[in-house]
Amino acid sequence: MAEPDRTTPSPEERARDLALARAALEGGSDARRELARRLRCVPRMLAVLNRRRGGRLSTHDLEDLSQEVTIVILRKLGTFAGQATLEGWVHRICFLELQNHLRSAARGTEAIHPDRDWTEEDVPDRAPDPAEYELVERSLAELGTPEADAVRLKHYEQLTFDEIAAVLDISPNTAKSRYYRGIAWLQRHLQARVEAGGKR
Fold this sequence. Notes:
Order of helices and strands: HHHHHHHHH
Largest sheet: none
Mean pLDDT: 76
């Protein structure tokens, strides 16, 4: 049976993710087991991101990086505020740390810094026009998850719908539906801003 299509996570789902993070931080054994299960997405996310960058890391390197990134996630778990799904939040960490790893490897310096400062609002810096990028990001924040996650993965990461489905643990059809709904909303939103004389 296909996964039910939903436009936004329910309040219960948001509360569950936040409660899970907090319970794991407080040492709850059940919460830690559930968090460990959810974090099994880390190797898959890193593998997808690595493929999109030409497979620059070997399987062994990806295994090592997955362990290191998981440590980063656990150390930063207290910063999770529920502004995205847990998996969406984890994906951003994977993206940032892989980029950091590749840059540092090219320089021959240490790649992973578990105590490096970053926030949940950190996003991939890929837009050619910073002002335009900022406007799109503000609009995506208004759109909210899960549509915004699908749009970011499609355009920032250039992932296929199958890859988006794998990252977000949903069906490819649901990934497509979320993406196209998000793009339609974004186009209407930005067009309304232009017609109103807003900042482009």
